[in-house]
Amino acid sequence: MAWFYLALAIVFEIAFALGTNATKGFTRLWPSVFTLVAAAGGIYTLSLALRTLDVGVGYTMWTGLGSIGTVILGALIYKEKITVPKLVSFAAIILGVITLKVASGL
């Protein structure tokens, strides 16, 4: 169940990051409400995952995969550019997440 909560927390993290851009500095009501709900949902579901997972594994996967999802969806939704240095960084993050998962024995 911890991995399910972590996956949900990652979805919330991506929604939070993308929503923050849509708030235009928290000047737009509904994107701001969405962003705050996503932030709270992400923290809550991460806390549920960390009941079982090591904080180093859970938090790193949350931020790492959340970052990758945010960059990919940011490119699709906001037309942000994905460059070669970004791709190399993604590969490093993915390798790190895989290594953490293997090292945690889960």
Automatic annotation (TrEMBL):
Principal location class: membrane
Name assigned to this protein: DMT family transporter
InterPro entries found in the cross-reference section: EmrE-like, Small_drug/metabolite_transptr, Small_multidrug_res
Record family assignment: Belongs to the drug/metabolite transporter (DMT) superfamily. Small multidrug resistance (SMR) (TC 2.A.7.1) family.
Cellular localization per UniProt: Cell membrane
Pfam families for this protein: Multi_Drug_Res
Residue stretches spanning the membrane: 29-50, 57-78, 84-103
Record's keyword terms, sorted: Cell membrane, Membrane, Transmembrane, Transmembrane helix, Transport
Membrane topology note: Multi-pass membrane protein
